[in-house]
Specification:
Length: about 210
């Protein structure tokens, strides 16, 4: 989730991070962020410090209390402000103006530390580090692309992912193929793990729901 009162920054980072395979939730202030946090799964919070109403330091508590890592985006250069953010539990900060590539690198480092290394649900286990998959204890053979797609789906379990996002995250945003590529690989995963595990979101994409009732 990105919380920043500057529309231009929200638009720029929303586009850049989506093209890099991230799913974005945007908020212009603390009130909007708190409302979205009630219903939106969040892996990391990118918070501006100086905003109308509630500032980033205060808002950060709402995320930190839920064990969601915080990265501050700030124009503040005073050392006490940077130290305050780190001491309250923030993972990192980046000073405005910044290069999107640097922000993306910092996000990736933080997410690698916080994301679970093993997913287990309804008899399906995905070991992200070992790139191994098990169905009811038995190994399942997947191609590299099938595993990457399964990893994306399970790390975002319950969330609807567009075909375009899946292409960008697994094949790279510069990939020139068609969204049919995603459909083919989803069908292969269904054949190996169960047809009910991946739900089709009409005219949009797919979501991981697991083996219902298993």
């Amino acid at each position: 989730m990105l919380v920043d009162d500057e529309q231009s920054i929200r638009d720029m980072l929303d586009l850049y991070l989506r093209l890099s395979g991230h799913t974005m939730a945007l908020a212009a202030d603390g009130r909007e962020a708190r409302e979205k946090l009630k219903t939106t799964p969040v892996d990391i919070a990118l918070l501006d410090i100086m905003m109308p109403g509630e500032d980033g330091f205060s808002l950060a508590r709402a995320f930190l209390d839920k064990q969601i890592p915080v990265l501050f985006l700030t124009a503040k250069t005073a050392l006490p402000d940077r130290v305050r953010g780190l001491r309250m539990g923030a993972e990192d900060y980046i000073l405005k103006p910044f290069e999107p590539e640097e922000l993306l690198a910092r996000i990736d480092v933080i997410l690698r530390r916080f994301q679970p290394r093993v997913f287990s649900q309804d008899g399906i286990t995905v070991d992200y580090d070992a790139r191994a998959v098990f169905l009811d204890g038995e190994p399942v053979t997947l191609t590299a692309m099938e595993f990457d797609l399964l990893s994306l789906l399970t790390k975002n379990a319950g969330a609807a992912l567009s075909r375009e996002k899946m292409l960008a995250a697994v094949w790279g945003w510069e990939f020139m193929g068609e969204t049919r590529t995603v459909d083919v690989h989803v069908q292969r995963l269904r054949a190996k793990l169960g047809a009910e595990t991946i739900e089709t979101v009409y005219k949009y994409g797919y979501r991981w729901i697991g083996r219902q009732g298993a």
